[in-house]
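Problem: given the chain below (339 residues), write out its structure.
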Amino acid sequence: MGYLFQFRRYHLPLRAPVRTAHGRWTEREGVLVRLETAEGAVAFGEAAVLPWFGTETADEAEAGCRAVGAKAGADLLASLPGKLSCVRNALAAAMGELAAGTAVRAKAVPYLGVAALLPAGRAALDALQGKGDLGFRVFKWKVGVGDVADELSLLDDLCGGLPTGGTLRLDANGAWDRRRAERWLEKCAERPVEFVEQPVAPEARGADDLLRGLAEDFPTPIALDESVAGDGDIERWLGAGWRGVFVIKPALLGQVEATMDRLAKANASVVFSSALETAVGAKAALRVAFAWPGEARALGFGVWPLFADARFDGPQAAPLVRWEDVERINPEAIWNVLN
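Solution.
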């Protein structure tokens, strides 16, 4: 089977800056792809690149798409350089859509829970109240952004403000060293903290051993995020016997189906998370989450409204995301906005 191939790069201002330990984001960039068969069937995908997370850059993604040309064969994925994981992801999503046609995905459940994303710093307190009133019960708080003493003092305030049955996830984005990580994990013990995500950076000296040691020494579970940015990273940690949490951003995987099969066979604990993609990438990523056969943990997709132009947003942040809302996303409409 051959395809007509097109791509469009995007630069989208965010509705409000996003602060993490990696810095301050004001816009999102990436590439949308479009495949069309000889019969006129059309499907789309998104290369939602995160270069600081280990993916290709937007320039590299665009160059890779330009090299494909206007026509592509069935061996399209095999012809792409391995580094272009997000481009591979985008094309695999589009090819999978075309192969599935209108077939119903039998594994889909009606809905999945969603974790609310809290802003860094003291603004998290007001956001917690508002999100709790909307019905959220799992909350993700970005830490490692401000002064450590201030953030530690805020932890008790946030725990005290949780609604009944509420839990908190802490995401450090690799901002801590051993001493700070241990200080936080001591503080988290016996508090309603579901897990601490990526306490130390994967590129830090001895990071793998340090993460394993922290997981063994403290009762609060550790979740890997930046440490499992790609398919190879996930395979390495599975091979090492990691029994903590895997935070999986489906949009960043170059071999989604094979990697998810490997995680399922290992009975891994998985939390699916957004890569701050547009609705095109969100549809593909959420389909992966809905098809997961393991324990359904609250999704890290409570990120919208995200873009200044709301037409690019995925399903509105709510305590639940419904399968029918995912399937209602129209990638062609988003593609046309970029025209």
